[in-house]
Each structure stands twice: as structure tokens, then as C-alpha cells.
């Protein structure tokens, strides 16, 4: 059984009951759990506290992106829920990221603070429409800024992992959504990689949602992916 589980299961469920039913079937040694915007909006901080109380490391994936004071207060509130990881958007800029970092300084339970670079659903064409360069340029730029601002790591595609490990160092955590086992539909994800290839490229954590939660047997799928990483 994995001691430091690499898989963060995205609990993108429509209600707390479905999320708790999933959590009942898995153990904290098999996976960490990610609560994102859909579930948090419907179930709120109470559900996060329930998952933490059950012994799970929880990644609160709310991707804060606002003025520095607002983001600082939001990450502090997240820390007080007992979450293991929380994130902000790197494109919120230096002042915002530094305010978030400083806000956590005196927290007794300090979560990992991670910055989103470029969403894994985005490709070069979508970035160009926003007047931004391709992922191969924009992701390293934002990752380097996140490192300078004292972030613990970034959300990126595993496709960028080799470059980012060289640029930002081994300790800088790479959290990678857009994970698709071979043969599984990409859906709305653009920059994808298989679990095995992502780990080999240097990803520290694999965020996996639908390939597990919407599979015929979610527990068996989780176990199979864990086994493929061992
Ligand atoms: O760049 C990003 C940042 C966050 N996500 C989140 O990860 C999961 C992925 O779910 P899948 O079902 O495996 O596609 C989802 O909760 C996203 O909000 C991301 O995909 N990309």
C-alpha cells in the first residue's frame, strides 16, 4: 500500500453524499482527495472538515484569483479547515502570491501552497486567443514566478514536468491534472499524459477525476493505477 499516495482523486460529485460514499470505499493510504469548485459550492467547508476528520489529506482546489488581501484571507481560512494543500492562480501575480504565502506564515497547520500555471484544458490556440504565448513558454514563466514568490509548487500538465523540474528544482512540487490512462477519453482536457508517463516525467502528484470516479469499478481502477505506479 502506498505510504505517500501519489494519486489525488478529484471528488467532482454533485453532492456531499456521493463524495462521502466514495471516501467510505477508499483509505487515506490509497489516495488523497481533492475538493474542487463543484463539490465545495454544494457541500461547503463542513464536508472538507469531515474528510479531514476521516484521516484524508485534502487538496482544496478553489484556485483563488483575486486581489492580494482577499486571497490571503481565503488561504488562511483554508488552512484552518485543516487542508493539506490549497491553490491560487499564478496569473494573479507576484503581490497576490506573496500575500498568500505571508498569510500562512504563522498558521499552526500550514498547507502546501500551490500556484496554477495554465489550465490543462488549454492548448496553444486557446492561449493565443487571450494574447498569451503557447504553454511551452507561458507555463515555465509562471512556474518560475511562483517559485520566486515562495510557492511550494505548481499545477501544470505532466507534459511540462521535465522542463519544470530542471527550471525549479526537485523539491518544487508538480501537481498534474490531465491524467488519462491509455485508451481513456480525454474529454475537455488538452494537455494529457498517462499515469506512468507522468510519474516518469517527474510529476509529484497525479490529479485524477473521471477516469476513476466514473469508471465501472472506481476502487479497482484506483488500485490498478496505484499498482502501475509501484
Ligand atoms: O489545470 C487544471 C487544474 C485543475 N484541474 C482539475 O483537476 C480535475 C481533473 O479531473 P478529470 O476528471 O481527471 O479531468 C478537475 O477537478 C479539474 O477541476 C484540471 O483538470 N486542470
UniProtKB/TrEMBL annotation:
**First-tier enzyme category under EC:** lyase
Its UniProt pathway annotation is:
Pyrimidine metabolism; UMP biosynthesis via de novo pathway; UMP from orotate: step 2/2
Tell me the active site: 61, 63, 66
Choose one Gene Ontology CC annotation of this protein and give it.
cytosol
Q: What is its EC number?
A: 4.1.1.23
According to its UniProt entry, one GO biological process term is:
'de novo' UMP biosynthetic process
> Catalytic activity, per the record?
orotidine 5'-phosphate + H(+) = UMP + CO2
Q: Where does substrate bind?
A: 12, 34, 61-70, 120, 180, 189, 209-210
Keyword hit for Lyase: yes
- One family from Pfam that matches here is OMPdecase
Identify the SUPFAM superfamilies for this entry.
Answer: Ribulose-phoshate binding barrel
Matching entries from InterPro entries are given as: Aldolase_TIM (IPR013785), OMPdecase (IPR014732), OMPdecase_AS (IPR018089), OMPdecase_bac (IPR047596), OMPdeCOase_dom (IPR001754), RibuloseP-bd_barrel (IPR011060)
Where does the UniProt annotation place the signal sequence? none
Q: How does it assemble?
A: Homodimer.
**Family membership:** Belongs to the OMP decarboxylase family. Type 1 subfamily.
Name of the protein in question? Orotidine 5'-phosphate decarboxylase
Tell me which species this is from: Chitinimonas taiwanensis DSM 18899
Amino acid at each position: 500500500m502506498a505510504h505517500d499516495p501519489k494519486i489525488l482523486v478529484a471528488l467532482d460529485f454533485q453532492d456531499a453524499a456521493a463524495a462521502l460514499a466514495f471516501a467510505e470505499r477508499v483509505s487515506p493510504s490509497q489516495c488523497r482527495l481533492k475538493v474542487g469548485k463543484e463539490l465545495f459550492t454544494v457541500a461547503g467547508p463542513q464536508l472538507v472538515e469531515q474528510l479531514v476528520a476521516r484521516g484524508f489529506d485534502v487538496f482544496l482546489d478553489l484556485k483563488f484569483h483575486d486581489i492580494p488581501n482577499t486571497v490571503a484571507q481565503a488561504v488562511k481560512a483554508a488552512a484552518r479547515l485543516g487542508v493539506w494543500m490549497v491553490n491560487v492562480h499564478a496569473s494573479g501575480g507576484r503581490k497576490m502570491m506573496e500575500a498568500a504565502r505571508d498569510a500562512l506564515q504563522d498558521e499552526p497547520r500550514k498547507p502546501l501552497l500551490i500556484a496554477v500555471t495554465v489550465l490543462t484544458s488549454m492548448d496553444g490556440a486557446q492561449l493565443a486567443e487571450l494574447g498569451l504565448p503557447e504553454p511551452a513558454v507561458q507555463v515555465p514563466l509562471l512556474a518560475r514566478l511562483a517559485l520566486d514568490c515562495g510557492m511550494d509548487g505548481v499545477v501544470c500538465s505532466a507534459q511540462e514536468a521535465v522542463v519544470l523540474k530542471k527550471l525549479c528544482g526537485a523539491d518544487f512540487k508538480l501537481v498534474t491534472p490531465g491524467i488519462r490512462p491509455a485508451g481513456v477519453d480525454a474529454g475537455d482536457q488538452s494537455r494529457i499524459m498517462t499515469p506512468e508517463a507522468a510519474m516518469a516525467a517527474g510529476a509529484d502528484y497525479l490529479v485524477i477525476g473521471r477516469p476513476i470516479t466514473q469508471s465501472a469499478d472506481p476502487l479497482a481502477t484506483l488500485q490498478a493505477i496505484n499498482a502501475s505506479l509501484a
